[in-house]
Amino acid sequence: MSVNGKKVLHMDRNPYYGGESASITPLEDLYKRFKIPGSPPESMGRGRDWNVDLIPKFLMANGQLVKMLLYTEVTRYLDFKVTEGSFVYKGGKIYKVPSTEAEALASSLMGLFEKRRFRKFLVYVANFDE
């Protein structure tokens, strides 16, 4: 609304806004929130250079949220990064979800028949022609 010239009043009991999915800045506030003793090391630079999401977000590349972020010009404060992989937690360990044929065959997440079906699925997706 402020982009369109409207006045906005935001009230929150926290020194940051956004509730459970907030982004905390400066870095000193993050240390206070998680009760980390001391202050951030000098090697991390200025505290205001950091903005840490309590819950990282996944955005669809051409979704409505991305369009809104571009419209409001907050993208100058954001860094976008491609997801490097998906992971699952199983039996007390973290495993990478296979994304290639070789990873599918080497994964301990699936049985022999599931690996074969998953490999076929990956081949199908790789060869899919829109």
TrEMBL record:
GO terms for cellular component: Golgi apparatus; membrane. This is Rab GDP dissociation inhibitor. Interacts with RHOH. Interacts with the GDP-bound inactive forms of RAB3A, RAB3B, RAB3C, RAB5A, RAB5B, RAB5C, RAB8A, RAB8B, RAB10, RAB12, RAB35, and RAB43; binds RAB3D to a lesser extent. Interacts with DZIP1; this interaction negatively regulates the interaction of GDI2 with GDP-bound RAB8A. Belongs to the Rab GDI family. Keywords: Acetylation, Cytoplasm, Golgi apparatus, GTPase activation, Membrane, Phosphoprotein. GDP-dissociation inhibitor preventing the GDP to GTP exchange of most Rab proteins. By keeping these small GTPases in their inactive GDP-bound form regulates intracellular membrane trafficking. Negatively regulates protein transport to the cilium and ciliogenesis through the inhibition of RAB8A. GO terms for molecular function: GTPase activator activity; Rab GDP-dissociation inhibitor activity. Pfam families: GDI. PANTHER family: RAB GDP DISSOCIATION INHIBITOR BETA, RAB GDP-DISSOCIATION INHIBITOR. Signal peptide: none annotated. It is found in: Cytoplasm; Golgi apparatus, trans-Golgi network; Membrane. It comes from Pan troglodytes. InterPro entries: FAD/NAD-bd_sf, GDP_dissociation_inhibitor, RabGDI. It is a peripheral membrane protein. GO terms for biological process: protein transport; small GTPase-mediated signal transduction. Its main location: cytoplasm.
